[in-house]
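Exercise 7. Given the components listed, write out the predicted structure of the assembled complex. Treat all entries as one system.
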Amino acid sequence: MTPLLEVEDLRITFPTRHGTSHPVDGVSFSVARGELLALVGESGCGKSLTSLALLRLVPPPGQIQPGSAIRLDGTDVLGLGPEELRSIRGRRIGMIFQDPMTSLNPVFTIADQIGESVRAHQKVSKRAARARALELLQEVGIPDPTQRLDVYPHQMSGGMRQRVMIAIALASEPEMLIADEPTTALDVTVQAQILELLDGLRAARGMAVLLITHDLGIVAGRADRVAVMYAGRLVEEAATAELFARPSHPYTKGLLASVPRITGAVTRLTPIAGTVPAPTAWPAGCRFHPRCPAALPRCATDDPPALPVGNAHRMRCWLAEAGRA
Amino acid sequence: MSTPLLEVRDLVKHYKATGFLARKSPPVRAVDGVSFTVGKGETLGLVGESGCGKSTVGRTILRLQDATAGSVAFEGKDFFALQAAALRQARQRLQIIFQDPYSSLNPRMTIGDAIAEGMEIHRLAPRGEIPARVARLLEEVGLDPDYSTRYPHEFSGGQRQRIGIARALAVEPAFIVCDEPVSALDVSVQAQVLNLLADLQARRGISYLFIAHDLAVVRQIAHRVAVMYLGRIVETGPTEDVLARPAHPYTKALLSAVPVPDPNTQRLRIVLPGDPPSPSNPPSGCAFHPRCPHPAKDARCTTERPLLHQIGAAQVACHHAGTAP
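Answer.
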């Protein structure tokens, strides 16, 4: 069966004063129907830009380079005209962001904003759109939904606003939801609620979810597969259980060793040395080699391709070939 | 331990509403009777979700804001009673570092000047010796001493936090309030800064009040922990005891919501209903009762405010703590 979404060799460039920047530089992955894929990485790794590119929302002057391919159900998203693109954006693929307040219009009520999304998708009366908005508020678990229909975004808490954003995204019955750091701005107890909700919706609707996050912790219990990004590329990809059981790329290992734990003995953290390089000047060879504790001489010159390290488990690291992973 | 370095008693900070409807609005009870001590060379972690009053505690004890009531004794002296000159002198011993060091650094001042400023104000070194001292401080926080002529925008988030720490250290404080110092940093950099803070404490015997929302981070650095909810401490004790055997239902829920980067960890997930209530209109009795999942919850919880009492090694403010969860 073909995957719902396929991304092949995605490259995005930005002209800057310091030369051309390559924040996303050859990213390939796929998402199956009903699957939850987590795209994990630190700031500046290109994960958010990758997700924006899926809807052709890369902000100018950024450009998706020729040779990149994005296919939704076999349809070439990059070749679509404006009209066809609208049939995908917000319809077949919904998107929610870190800060719901900036995506909600402060002068319209919740019913108006969900209703707008309903009516953009189906030709229904305002009354029917309002009824649908109420159903959606119930589906995303907002208490007293009837009363909440007529409130404004500022009257709601951060967690409630994120639920409203999810309701707006669901109005068009999308096949896929892109969630870009959906819980980063929320308190942990509220974060737990939103993650449970997303997981429940995925199961109930068979909707695929692309979860963009910096937090390996929220990935562990929920994602089917994990793709780790570093410096504009996927460096490791595997099923979640496999990735956490056998993290193989030195960057993934480094990330896991950096996270303070809530159980077990408290030991000194092992940070990754140095800092992330700038996207205008990625290092030659493997992009992680200047920070890598296991770098080989060839890592400074030869760029490793994605190599297999196990069952459906690949990484961009020469250690895979050396069998030392 | 003899006299603690810092002793906070019954600290209260209410914000009066201002403007048009001020007389009708109740005050915001940001901090509502908080007491704790911090010993020499000790770290107390102050944990809670947004709006619980933890940052207000940090600012109020340093007199960056005036307290509504309560007292703070620092090195045995009543800190709130100090007048201008004595206060200035004492402030050299108490410093603060913030979540976003960029907003606390002057963009037009080189970082060398920013670090030297405190030494000059407190006349800690002859003018000629200051550059050498700045260089030593930069080295101590893991930065290149040659950076002293650069400006804040030239640095990454992690480096700026190191600059913020160097600036606080410049006046040789005995006590530092660390207000969410690593929450804005990527995990790999967060680990570097946590290790740095631990090293500085080991070397210089500094005490920290470490304010954070992340229990795993607090566990990594704090000897004792105090959990806040809606302006009050609900549980406090040695970090290991509180996190291994939490007694307050809120601590339990908070702990269960911490994302763990290990899919095999079987944990009981307590997803709390609702959002934290508003501190301008706190619930009666126990402020946590509307969200509390404790099965023994009864009428007493809604009418009588629970006080901190000893359970094992910790102190807990819950009528039913100690009975079955």
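Discussion: DSSP finds twelve helices and 13 strands in chain A. The longest strand of chain A covers residues 19-31.
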